Each structure stands twice: as C-alpha cells, then as structure tokens.
Amino acid sequence: MVTLSHDTVGSSTVIPSFIVRTNNIAKELMQAASNYKVSVHSLDFRIMEVQTLSFQTGETKSEADTWIELSKADIAEISTEQYLNPKFELKQTYEIEIFSIKQTSKLDHIELSIAGNPSLSKIFLTIKPGSELVYYPTFEEDFFELIKKKKLRANLMVGIFDSMMRENLAELIAKLKVNGSYQVEGQERFIVAQSFEPIATINDQLIMHYDNKQNGLDEAGRMDYAKRGYIISVVANDLLIEYIKPQKGTCGRNCRGEFITPREPIVKNEPTFTIGENILRNEDDMHIEFRAKTGGYVTFEGGMYDIKTEMDVTEISFRSTGSIETHLDSDVSINVKEKDPLKDAIGTGMEVTVNVINVDGNVGPDAKVTAHKAVIEGQVHNSATITADDLTINVHKGQAYGKEIHITRLEHGSVDGDYVHIAQATGGIVNAQEIDVELLGSHTKLTASRRIEIQKLQGGENILTIDPLLNESAEFLEDEQTLMIEVKKVIHDVGKELEGYEETMKKTAPAYEDIKRKLINYKNNGIKIPIAYVEKYKQFQEFKKKLDALRKEYQDKLDHYAFISGRHRALQDEIFEARVINHDRWHNYNKIIFKLIDPPVDITFFPPDNTEGGIYGLHVDDDGVFSIKVLLK
User: Fold this and answer.
1) I want to staple 10 with a disulfide (CB 3.0 to 4.6 A). Which of 39, 451, 452, 593 is the partner?
2) pTM of the prediction?
3) Residue whose C-alpha is closest to residue 382's, from 317, 427, 444
4) What is the dihedral of CA 557, 563, 567, 570, to 10 degrees?
C-alpha cells in the first residue's frame, strides 16, 4: 500500500490568498510555502475550477489544437478501449485559491489518509481509529470536498475513475445521518477511485519441484548433512519440473490518468535438458510440465532427466550417502553391497526409508530401516530398528517390526509381527499372532494370540504365553467394559420408558381406532369434521410417533450391546482355540501361560523336565475351573 498524503497544521503566519492555475496542486502549495517561508501544512486551497482534457496522437493538427476539453458527459462516454489505448492521453488543470488556515474545521476530528496500490489503479480512503464524525447540514458536501482535495494533493485526478465513491460511502453517511455522530473504533477503508489495473509481466521460470521434496534442513533451519537427499523419490504423476513460459503483461491506466505500459519479459530459463522414457512432457500456452510416468527416483545424467527404480550402493553411511528417505510407494529398490562382517553396510545412526532394500552386510548401531520388503543378510545391531511388512534377517539383536518376519538366528533381539518364523532362538522377546521356532534355546519370551509351535527344544528358562489381547491395549479392554456398562444402563432406562408408553398405547388403542373410523366416515359423507376429533387424532399420531421412535432406540441399543459384548466374547473365545505346540521333549525349567480376559487371571503350567511334548490348550471343567491340558501328544 502506497500512502499518498498526510496533513497537519504547523504555522501561525498568515499569507495573502491568491489564485493560480496549475496541473500540480502539491507543487504549487510547496512553492507558496517556500515563497512565504511557512509550513506547507498551514496552507489550504479552494477548488474553483477543474478542467479535464484529452488528446489522441496521430492526428494532423498541432498539439496545442488537439487537446480537447471534456465535460462530465464526455468523461462518462470514454470507452475501455480508449482508456487502454496508448495514444489516448488525459490531463487535468485546476484553478485554485491558496490561503492560510485561520480557523479549525468541523472535520478536524476526522483523521483521513489516501493510499493506493502499487500501480495507483485503486485508491483507498482510510478513516483511522479515534476519528469522530459529527453530522451537520453541509457535512456530506464538505466531507466529499475534503476527500477531493486530498486526492488532488496526491496528484490524483478527480471527477474521473471515482464514480463509485459516493456509493461506497453511502452506508457510512446514512449511519451518521441517523445517529448524528459516529466514533470510529477500528480502521475503516473505502475504495474512492478505481481505474484499469495492468496485469504484470511474468518472466520465465524453471521450477525444480522434485528437488524441493527434500530440503535437508533440521528443526532449527540449519543444513542437516546426514539428510542431504542422496536420492529423491517420486510416485507416478508427480510433478517433477515446471517451466513457466514468459508472459507479457497487459497495459493499464492509473488514477493519475497515466498510461501503464507492460515491460518485456526476461527470458533466461528455457529448458535445455532432455527427458527419458519414464517422464511425460505436457505443454500448454502458459507452461510446460514434466511428470513422472512411474514411481522411482529421479536421475540426471548427461543432460537427461529420467526415473529409475533400482540402485546399488556400497554402503549407506554419513560419509558416502547420508540417510536415504524415499516414498514407500515409489517403487525404489536399494541394494547395499558391503559384505565385510567387520563393517556396517548401513552405518551408525543412518535412517533409510525405501520400498525394497537388500542389505548384504550388517546394520549398525542406532540405524533405522523402514520398507515394504527388507532382507538383511548380516546382523542387526542391538540398538538398530528394522520395520518392514515382509522382513528377512540373518542374525537379529535389535528391534524388528513387520507382518511376516523370518529370522535365521535371534540373539536377544525383540520382534513384533503378525507371523514370525525363527530358525534358531537363543534369547529375546517375540510377539506375534503366530510363532514358529525350529530350534529354541534358552531365555526366550514368546507371546502369541493364536499359536506357538516349537520343532526342537534345547534350553530352558523360556516363557510361552498365549494372550488374546496381544494386539489390543489394556486401555481398550477397560474402555470396552465401561462402554458395555453404560449401554446396559441406557437399555434399562429406555426399556422402562418404553414399557410405560406400551401400556398407555394398549389402553388408548380402542379409542384411537374409534376416532379413526369416525373421521373416515365424516370424510366419505362430506360431513364437517369436529375440531375436537381432529385434535385428538393428531395427539394419537404424535404419541404413536414417539412410541415408534422409542421402539427403534431400544432395538438399536440392544443391537449395540450385542455387538460390543459379542466382540468382547470373541476375544475371550479365541483363547480356547489357541495352542502351544512342542514337537520335542521338555528340558529344564519352562513356563506356559494362558492369559484370560474374564476373569483377568493368568493360567500357568510348568511342563516337567524331560517329559514328552505335545499340543497344549486351555481347558475349563464343569465347575468353571481353568487349567492348561495336553490335548494331543
């Protein structure tokens, strides 16, 4: 916003008034102030005449003869085409009387300012907070004259481009007329002139959208070199690069009557690269788009952009690549080739997010790998975390999360998945729906919601737990129980209310049917229906609607309770289908636990040392006593 004027009074010297003809009032006021050595803010002027003239170049007459004075009617007939014609010129000449301000004005309590947008094609009047408007008979005339003079001080034309001014201020004037006065509490702004806004010229621009996907900055806005964006992933139809074509703007005319010519666009970013088969080029009048045809990562080699899906790297480390973060659905596969058992293929603290990753070696301390599919041929450090839907690990000491997990050797690591298969377990914690262990050593905690199966048992101190709430939190169970109690109470309350309505309906039903028959008879025989019958019938109808609503609410609550309690029972019932299976003999000290939901107790069994294994399940006898039994040997 460009502020164009600000008036204050600042001198007690009085100058003789004089009349001048000018096309720049601000300049004349400054000159008068200089000549008389007074402050320009101590001077005011009276508009005696405004002369608007137009000129069209290309005519044969001399310039002095071709300036034509325009009347108000002529100004109203100027077309948009004329205003936007660079050969059409406008100017105004003003005859004014300049004089010293000798007394205060009734409008002095109104603090006004005139401002415009950068092109001065839209002019705003701002009335500042604290201004006090007091109505008097000539207020409207004086107020618009004040605005007019402020525009002239800012070298803006008057009587042209300002036809909307009175309409925009009409509500304010009307409010003032009704109330007599008006205190401005918040800043109020009005459009008092509007001409023809030019459309700015657009320089050409090349936007590397794909490169903005990763900025490598930390939370403090500093460059995080560990996340410097070694590769940048995309998915199909991602906008990679966009070229904004140069567009020359359109001409305009500002509220000073000046024609605005758009500048020529600067062209310096035209694409010089080529694209591969996996990138699509779309072009229209405004821009050129380069979009991904398929998911993968962006490459730029030999002046050509393309998308690839597979990458081989020796290692992922701070020094070589930094962390690698791609979109999980971008079809990027990374093969990490470092096999040396004394080195880390994925280095300390590195974070990798990728669709598929194959690691020939080790995953180092504090590393984090997230993928749809991951294969780790080496070992996973005890502080490393691997998350993948389909996960295969050779030696696992860290944390693993996934849906289907295969581990060759578990060495005190932790595993959470849907299905977990372990060739050899020598300590650790495993949570899954189903767990298969080929060789179970010692000090391993296996917890499943459905099945634990062991082919060979060599050690002891193992805890095998069946927990139907393995995938549900304790808070979930508590919330379910609370909800069941609440719904049960609502069922009782609604049922009691429904019982009363049903009893009333039973008593009033004969009377309802009798009135219904009479109404039908009156209607069929053209007899005027008594108002009392109509009112009674309406009451019956409203009562029946309420009864039907209560019946529906009661049934809905019953269905809701059945759903919740059924879900609760289903979780409890699952434990009776769950199994612990040992195909070998029991050795040393081991414990089997089945965790009940209702009642919330643990049923424990300690298989005797050197006894034959079998299939173990939960049993409840006729007295309701739970125990773990061998169902099949």
Assistant:
1) 39
2) 0.66
3) 427
4) 120
